[in-house]
Amino acid sequence: MIKIYRKTATIKAEQFDGSDEMVKKYNITLPMPLDPDYTINTLEGDMVLGVGGWIATGVNGEHWPITDDVFKKTYAELPVIPENVAYVIRQGKIGSDYKLGWAFYAAYTVHWRASVSNWILMHQETFARAWLDGYQVEEDE
To answer: Cα(58)–Cα(83) distance, rounded to whole angstroms?
Structure first.
């Protein structure tokens, strides 16, 4: 029986713009006169990389190219959440091994400061996605 799977690892990725800075950063080979594509060295050997494609970086620092259309179908940026909400996730998952349902219950019963509970309740899908997949913390302005 065929089962359905989802990706579980997060990656870092940067869209390739053809700049000298990115060529140097990723040790990319410049295109030949009649070949419009760049090449990037990966664990599987040299692979084609076009401007507008993405350079993914894996958990061990390895790089590989992903075309823009495949990238957009496969990956979504991690949600951005406030630091005080990130603290709730860290405490719930790491400090106490609480479950996601507990976090929503605690938000409804105003277990935390009202601003944290209100944010969680107003952004329930974002909070759940951050809890399950990871998150980025809002940068202070």
So the answer is: 25
Cα separation of 18 and 25, whole Å?
11
Which pLDDT tens digit goes with each residue over 36-55? Answer: 789 999 999 999 999 999 99
Residue among 52, 65, 69 at smallest CA distance from 16: 52
Report CA Rg, the chain: 20
Token readout for 44 is: 């599987």
| pTM confidence score | 0.76
Instruction: Please give the C-alpha separations between residue 70 and each of 8, 74, 76, in angstroms, as whole numbers.
Output: 17, 6, 11
> What distance in Å separates the CA atoms of residue 53 and residue 33, rounded to the nearest whole number?
20
